[in-house]
Amino acid sequence: MTSQRHCIIGAGYAGLAVAKAFTDAGLEHDHLEATERVGGNWAHRVYDSVQLITSASVTQYADHPMPRHYPTFPSAAQMLAYLEDYATRFGLSERIEFGTQVDACAPRDPRGMTGWRVRLASGEEREYASVVAATGHYWDKKIPEHPGTFTGRTVHSADYRNPTDLGERVLVVGGGNSACDIAVEAARARGRADISLRRGYWFVPRTVGGVPTAELANGWLPEPVERMRTRAGVRATIGDYRRYGLQMPEHDIFDQDVTVNTRIFDAFENGRVRPRRGIARFDGNTVHFTDGGIGEYDTIVWATGYHLRLPFLERLLEWQDGVPLLIGHTFAPGLANLTVQGLIAPRLGAGSLATKGSRLIADVTHVQQRLDVPFADVLGRLARPSAKMTAGAFELERGLDAARVVLRFVDRHPRAAARIVDGHQHLTVPRHRPPLPAGTAVVTGASSGIGEALAYELAERGHALLLIARRRERLHRLATELRAKHGIDVEVLPCDLADRRQRETLCRILTGRDISVICANAGAATFGELRDADSVREADQVELNVNALHQLVIALLPGLLRRNSGAVLVTGSTAGHLPMPGMATYAATKAFVNSFAEALHSELRDTGVTCTLLAPGPVHTEFAQEAGLDESAQSGDPTWLPARRVAAEALHGLARGKRIVSPGAMAKLQTAAARHVPHAFTLPALRTMARNMP
């Protein structure tokens, strides 16, 4: 039985807000934190002198004001004390398991409808009804590479604490808030410092007329108006960046993070901080810049930010430019009971947003238990997945309000949620790819055609692969390519599945493996009347198309059922819907395959394992040639589909738990004809067609 407890990962600013919301909502949960204290970035990765760039009033949680004696811009120590007080006041600390790192999360079924498995670094595995990832994005240090070697000291801003960490000649690399603060602090302590800026940045003042900039950003203002007002404020307080020796930004304000800092301009004006261009190369202690300038330095501070990482979810999410594609910055497309909190850089304090967003997650967690589809997919009809990190108050507030309206509707009409999602299945395959269960995928017939295309598509989704086919050299070439391009594990098991002995040996090997996806794709065909056929080839066709598939699925299915998670894709054919003169054996074997797959789909209902039948029509592969057909028959015919399209649609349907996938108009037409037109009419037409085949 699935646990009714929920899992919150991370006890920083975002994670504590979620824990408070879950506590208020009566959701029993485990709260896991990899370090030994609350606070996240504020406890582990900030320098001594850091202060908030947003005021206390817009940074505090909506349900816990900051102390009145705090300054407008609290220090790191004050922020940490505030978070610790929040955790203590609401009894959150006593629920937190400190020193508990999560290594992996996997849905118990393809969409996470029945819950999630969480594996800890200790090796312990737990089951939860839902998972909230709130680990933040300021921990995996990003340090760019440049030609040459720097022989002085290097330190990332995450490890910098105060000027005692620096030498006499300091170069700070980066244009964000930390870079500017450290450059000013280094100049104050050492008399002078340089800052390397490879491009133009937007700098905005921390206050305008004595009022914090964040407090001037009213949530009701549309983004274009906010952009215009902020640019006017920059011109009035800072002026033209070029007079300080800076490059003008090539992007519009708010398209990327802005730097909230004006002290750096005072340092530019008094000559304590000198702007330099981007780094071209190193030569000992000498740094060569892209504009031809050079400088000698003892210390380089890399204030170059962080890689955004969610290692326990990386293979489940689709990533774009290093950022996961999420709906409303929170919901993973195609997945239920998984939410992400804190992967956003709001242009004002996040206190109210963190509180409201966490309450929404708690409410979605309650309602999801009554839905037959992921809430993310319902919400996805209003908002596309996005990898954008920066956002304004107006955009975020509007997104939360819209999600709340959708949630209220599906809470009152839970059956409507499935209709909303399924009613759009006629659309083309979405740009995002719903994930399949994490783990190793087995693909038979992987050396060409649809099997090869499935291998490519699965590799792009991050799956480890186990490739099976007769042609050893082709398999090894494919495996080498996929390893190099995607960095995944690929194992090759050459096997002639039509050979019973080889097949039995293969099944013994595979039953000991941790397999999550089975793509039973291998197949063969012959063309011609049965009285003229080669009896050996016909028998081999039955062995491969029927017995091999049947034996493989029976051998591997128990492993998926033990995991309560897995997916089986069976490649049948529209030919299996009809008796096919000229391909009698092939059509008969595919009739078995089609029927077997659809029956298995029904049997597996509510087990966490799903089975999908792929029933394509004509596909551009080597299949027709091997069946004895003239390959030129495919040329220029729009009814023949590319194998990659067929594979992509198959995996999309498999991830959604569909019973049958028939890509393309021709396949759908053939399926409809088989179901609604009597064989007395179709057989003469098919026989005539077979006689006219080249």
Structure in words:
- By secondary structure, the chain is an alpha/beta fold.
- The chain is built from 21 helices and 35 strands.
- The strands form eleven sheets. It has a seven-stranded parallel sheet, with helices on both faces. The protein has a five-stranded parallel sheet with strand order 3-2-1-7-24, covered by helices on one side. A five-stranded parallel sheet has the order 9-20-10-11-16.
- A hairpin with a 4-residue loop joins strand 18 and strand 19 (294-296).
- Helix 13 (449-460) crosses helix 19 and helix 15 (500-510) runs parallel beside helix 16 (535-563).
- The chain starts with 5 loop residues before the first strand and ends with a helix.
